[in-house]
Design goal:
The protein is mainly beta. Helix content is 0%, strand content 48%. The strands form two sheets. It has a six-stranded mixed beta sheet with strand order 2-10-9-4-5-6, with no helix packed on it.
């Protein structure tokens, strides 16, 4: 059974950068597409970026060109480098497989972009 722990969130000024990390445990990591999601209170969780087992990536239009998802199968981590952050990027960020597995949703990590 895989477990996911997100970290790296915090408060950052508009235009700044953050790097989120998702540490996975369990042997199923290498066989699963992984993704970062985010959620704002009152709105549905949205897919931000995904990366397949062969490192093919997709991004939401709102973050394309600014965010970069990567994975390190040897270390069982998936990362999200976020650059040129905007206020509208403020959300709780979660990692999960794609498609998501309901039992893997954790607490996420809060990203707040504000001056």
């Amino acid at each position: 059974q895989v477990q996911l722990v997100e970290s790296g969130g915090g408060l950052v000024q508009p235009g700044g950068s953050l790097r989120l990390s998702c540490a996975a445990s369990g042997s199923t990591f290498r066989t699963s597409a992984m993704a970062w999601y985010r959620q704002v209170p009152g709105k549905q969780r949205e897919l931000v970026a995904r990366i397949t087992t062969w490192d093919f990536t997709n991004y939401a239009d709102s973050v394309k060109g600014r965010f970069l998802i990567s994975r390190d199968n040897a270390k069982n981590t998936v990362n999200l480098q976020m650059n040129r952050l905007k206020a509208e990027d403020t959300a709780v960020y979660y990692c999960n497989t794609h498609p998501a597995l309901v039992n893997l949703w954790g607490q996420g990590t809060q990203v707040t972009v504000s001056s």
